[in-house]
């Protein structure tokens, strides 16, 4: 039986990718909250942090998004003590993914196209 293993915040501007990730995580017992850009994600992260018993155990962060991209989201997140401690895994098709993720202080990377086993391994590591 799958136990609810934690809240995962998906920050991805592509609606199909967001829905697919949320559905995949749901089949594994995780609760996914989605945002289409960094601005919405910051708002959700702060709101969930105040209202929910548990803050998200992980943020799955795309880098290239409108309004507020991954880098700007991470800067704002780290500047807010209430949500700074939530770990971030970067999901991106960037060639220099490892370097970008390291610069953001990300705990993991998941290259696009997404390898579901790798993604679930990362999520389980921080949320199980």
What does it look like?
It contains 5 helices and 5 strands, in the order βαβαβαβαβα. It is of the alpha/beta class and 128 residues long. Strands 2-1-3-4-5 form a 5-stranded parallel sheet, sandwiched between helices. α2 packs parallel to α3. The protein is globular and about 30 Å long.
Q: Major sheet: order of its strands?
A: 2-1-3-4-5
What's the SSE pattern?
A: EHEHEHEHEH
On the 0 to 100 scale, the average pLDDT is: 90
Please summarize the sheet with the most strands: 5 strands, parallel
Computed structural class? alpha/beta
DSSP E strands, number: 5
Strand fraction equals: 15-25%
Distance between the termini: 14 Å
Overall morphology: globular
The helix fraction, in percent, is 40-55%
Please give the radius of gyration in angstroms.
13 Å
Question: What's the total helix number?
Answer: 5
Question: Would you identify the regions where 5 or more consecutive residues have pLDDT less than 50?
Answer: none
Short key terms for the protein model shown above:
128 residues; alpha/beta; 5-stranded parallel beta sheet; 5 strands
What's the topology here?
Layout: E1 7-11, H1 15-27, E2 31-35, H2 38-51, E3 58-62, H3 70-78, E4 88-92, H4 97-104, E5 108-111, H5 116-127
Helix pairs in contact: 2-3
Summarize the structure.
It contains five helices and five strands.
